Here is the input.
Amino acid sequence: MKQNRTLAWIVFGIGAAYFVLPLLATVLFSLSIRKSGYTLDAYANVFSDPRFQSTFGFSLWIGLCTIVVGLSIVVPAAYYVRLRAPHLRPVIEFVTLLPLIIPAIVLVFGYVRFYNSSSWLPLTNSNFGTATLLTLAYVALGLPYMYRAVDTGLRTIDVQTLTEAATIMGANQFQVITQVIFPNIIVAVLSGAFLTLAIVIGEFTIASLLGVQVFGVYMENIGANRAFEPAALSIISFVLTWGAMGMIAFLGRFAPKTAPRT
Here is the structure.
């Protein structure tokens, strides 16, 4: 038993070092912009850069729109499949996996080809249209993660009993989904929203080919021209990611618990 426990700690230490040492090296490099010693100048340069403020704020806004649109599509669809059409689950799962199979560059070229200035719906002719097209593209990219997160949440509750009880009390279908089902899967929804936001924040290919200045494009541009600021951006992204994960864990404590029917 002691040998097994020692071996487990050794494996854990190796795994932790594999992740912690590169992160520590990145932190030290981001603080070494001056030869005289460690300083936060790289972080100050990033936060004071107007391009950082504009692109990060725009990416957050696009991410929020992507989450809202994605949830508006995924939650009713997953609810209907779970309650009324379980035989369609293999088809839905295959369709939601297509964004992982189709490369992003193929997807964006299809969008440009279909929604260019000579098409019946020229979305690329205006900034609003391009932002809308970018949001829809991100909805497609986040679909595999959003659907599986919501579907997992629906499996942990008794959807049929909750629906019947709410219907007996006079709730319509919209009220059932928004006021009964949605609060009971809030943790799963937050997980899918976090994964979708992570995709939006770091995505580069689609945004660059559509000519939209988002945070991912900003990170690529600053990485090609500077040395220490990209390391600072990496640490900032890491902190934001773990902060979002901490919020998900914190909010999960307040989620309603409903035992599934056996």
About this structure: Confidence is low (pLDDT under 50) at residues 258-262. The chain has two domains: 1-31, 40-252.
